[in-house]
Amino acid sequence: MPVHRSGSARRALSALIGLLAALLTATFALPGSAFAAQGAKAIPHPEDDWAGSQILKHEGASLSDEEPSGLLATVEGVDVSSHQGNVAWSTLWSSGVRFAYVKATEGTSYINPYFAQQYNGSYNVGMTRGAYHFALPDNSSGAAQANYFVDHGGGWTKDGKTLPGALDMEYNPYGATCYGKSASAMVSWIKDFTTTYKSRTGRDPVIYTSTSWWKSCTGNSSAFGSVNPLWIPRYGSSVGELPAGWGFHTIWQYTSTGPTVGDHDQFNGAMDRLQALANG
Description:
Layout: H1 7-25, H2 53-59, E1 74-80, H3 89-94, E2 99-106, E3 110-111, H4 115-124, E4 128-134, H5 142-154, E5 166-168, H6 183-201, E6 206-208, H7 211-218, E7 230-233, E8 251-258, E9 262-268, H8 271-279
Parallel strand pairs: 1-2, 2-4, 4-5, 5-6, 6-7, 7-8
Antiparallel strand pairs: 1-9, 2-3, 8-9
């Protein structure tokens, strides 16, 4: 015998079915998770991706734990990610470290779960600090990743202690070296990120990249050297050849095996120039 339902009962049943369907198909992207938001690709192991992680794999490990010599004026720094967990900032400060870059995001779904301890902890001991984004150009657009970065720790404020955000461009941890993009497409992706970041913050982001990757994946583009400060990894006694367009580097990641956290950097200038970079 058929069951006859009132119009209100049918509407209620339809709404319930719709809610259950939505719950079954929804994708949740929680801070620190490796699952992508709807419309983006999954990120299998973002906790293993930090500034230089792929440089080590493709270009070799640190040649020395000694600080490089020959630069007239430098400021010692470090860069960290969830790979380091909770960082002993007071120990680093006591050893002479005065600035830090902290991984904030990757793609459009991952947030470093240690970001607050690392970003605020470095600031609280007196360091100048900034955030960086690990780029996945085949995951989503440059603009989408710049917005995600700014919205999750990568912003900038003129407080004298915050460095402009940095864009980490290096070898693909999940596949083809250049993320399946031609040199011109990669340059366009980077421009999409940098222009969006500037429109959101008023600052041109720092670009982290190696000369070898830059040559391979951008065709050694000179489009960014006059605008974006260069943060270059090279684990040895000198910076070596720079990518096209840059006449000098701003930050040098010179070792992956330094004290306390591993990745150590030198700012190419005295403290007043580091403060100038922070102030814009």
